[in-house]
Amino acid sequence: MTRISTQLSAVRARIHAACRAAGRSPESVALLAVSKTFGADTVQAAFEAGQTDFGENYIQEAVEKISALRHLPLVWHCIGPVQSNKTRLVAEHFDWVHTVDRLKIAQRLSEQRPEGLPPLQVCIQVNVDGGPTKSGVTPADALALAQAAAGLPRLHLRGIMCIPEPAPDFETACEIFERARDLFEALNAQGLQLDTLSMGMSADLEAAIASGSTLVRVGSAIFGARHSPA
Fold this sequence. Notes:
The longest helix is centred in the C-terminal third of the chain and has 20 residues, at 170-189. α4 (87-93) packs across α5 (103-112). The protein has a single domain (3-223), classed as Alpha-Beta Barrel (TIM Barrel). With 230 residues, the chain is of the alpha/beta class. The chain contains 9 helices and 8 strands. It has helices spanning 3-21, 40-48, 59-68, 87-93, 103-112, 139-150, 170-189, 205-210, 220-223; strands at 30-34, 53-56, 75-78, 96-100, 120-125, 155-161, 196-198, 215-218.
């Protein structure tokens, strides 16, 4: 086995163990491999090890990889900030966007999504712990943004995403992630049909899964130390 396939297997084993500990089916949690700063050859190695969904933060870098690997049946997720001047690139190349935090961005993605492509799958990014350096709509404003995004053409609202500040221990991490789960459930109680709770990364995926995550975003545990952005 290659290094990446070995590390992918180890991450999948962690997901399965966390699901068992939480009384959940392993199939209830999807793995998103965060491939930012790694080249197309590394993504292809992960694909050959059975991974199909990849997350990217840097849009221009991602577009180059998407183009280079267009012959493979990959699913590309934008998990970095989306500025107004990059919405067209995102709308034209990605399958998912996890970081919608303003109605203006959702509207531009909707307007610029090509007619020949399936609807863009989107998540609302929520700043669940009030981290001062974190992007995301406040929990109090999440419902209004989610309802507005759900009504836009060419978009399919799937759920919410969060990136809380690192927590000092498992229990604290769970408390924070549970705020996101509670918000997710509250949005569904308002009539939104959400199925994706995108939370948890290499260091805290167990706490996220214990708290209800349906998708974990894992980079360093699969690919190793991050390269410097090009």
